[in-house]
Structures are given as C-alpha cells and as structure tokens.
Automatic annotation (TrEMBL):
Name of the protein this chain belongs to: Response regulator transcription factor
Main location: cytoplasm
Keyword Transcription among record annotations: yes
Residue ranges annotated for the Response regulatory domain, each copy included: 10-124
Record organism: Nocardiopsis endophytica
Keyword rRNA-binding carried by entry: no
Keywords in alphabetical order: DNA-binding, Phosphoprotein, Transcription, Transcription regulation, Two-component regulatory system
The entry's DNA-binding region: 139-237
Positions of modified residues (4-aspartylphosphate): 59
UniProt-annotated location(s): Cytoplasm
Amino acid sequence: MTSASAPAGRVLLADDDRAIRESLERALMLEGYEVLTAEDGVQALTAAHAEPVDLLVLDVMMPGVDGLGVTRVLRAEGDRRPILMLTARVETSDRVAGLDAGADDYLPKPFELDELMARIRALLRRAAPASADDGERPEPVLQVGDLRLDPAARRVWRAGREVELSKTEFDLLELLARNAGIVLDHPTIYDRIWGYDFGPDSKNLAVYISYLRRKLDAPDAPPLIQTVRGVGYTLRPQEG
C-alpha cells in the first residue's frame, strides 16, 4: 500500500496557445491528473507514440499538423484512446468534422472549466476496462429492427453492414437501444452519457444524434432514431 493516492489519469494536452495550455495544465494537475503538454500537432503525435496516456485533449487549430490531423493519424493506426477536441469554431459542420476524424467528444471555446472536467471524467470512465467476474456471462447482442449491437465487442451493424462508431457514439446508441421505444429526455441522456447536464442551450447532443443518423441511415432505409420535439429522442424503427 502506498501513502500517496494514485493519479486520476494521465492526460496529453496539446494547444499552441501558451496561456491556455499552461492554465489548463495547472487546472488538470489540481484535479489530480498527470499532464503531458505539446505545443503543436507534431509534438502531440510524438508524445502519443512515446508515452502511455489515458486521454488526449487536442486543440483543433494548431500549426503544422492540426488536431484533426493528429486524430486521423492515431485512428488510422488503430489507437482507440479517447480524444477530446477543443475548438473555437461554432458551426455544427466544423464540430462534426472532429467526430468524423475519430474524436470521441468536442468542446467549443470558450468553455467552463467544470464542463471540461466533467467530459474528461466521462471519457475516462467509459474507456476504463470492465471488471468481469470469471463466471459472468457475456452480455447478449441487442437487436432493434435491422440494428444489431454487441455491447461486449462494442460493434454495431445496420442491415448487415458494420458501422464504425466512436466511444461516445456507441455509448449513446447503446443507451437508446437498451431503452428502445422509450423516449429519453435531454437531461437523462446527458446524465447517463456525460455525467453532466450541459443545459438547454447546448447543441452537443443534437450534433451526436445527427452524426449517428448519418452513419446509420442508408438513403433508402427508414430512420431509426426518432426526435420527440421538446422532449428528447427514442430508438424506434419505422415500418417502411
């Protein structure tokens, strides 16, 4: 037994703005994280290849290789460590570009420090390996219409076609699949997926839903995820 408590996790933080980088480094360290920093995408890739880190926080706009480029390289190499994007871009299409590159979450600037910490904790919780007992049976595959979701393997198929999802996308789809036919309101989804309610003005959930639809719904297939306006979302196959 050691006298010092174990660190909350090891984070690689990459941002070319020195003031932001140093202030976030201090804040993360105060929360108990071990922090590695990088000034640009090249340094971030070098550190990611050389250091055992639990999570990456990447600014999108960096000289040389930007945050999107770093994410694409790591995902192409099969690196599945969670990535949180920081972006000053406010357009939904720009934020979706981060998810398309393989990021697990994004946070638009300026942001509240509490929200950043909440998202980091949520990503680390979902990335932590499950503690399985020897006698525990694997979870059954979920089937909703022509959607098949394997919680143990974290794989998804729609109409026989496998769909690649990020950690956050998979967790959101799994939550909806486990509650198929039930309308889940925004606060419930935020609490279950992010562990934090970002409030009525947040576009975070809407972006993830739209991105899941883009990945899941073929042009000739009926949509799986239904919007119940003013309430939330439900997974409910429509008969074509």
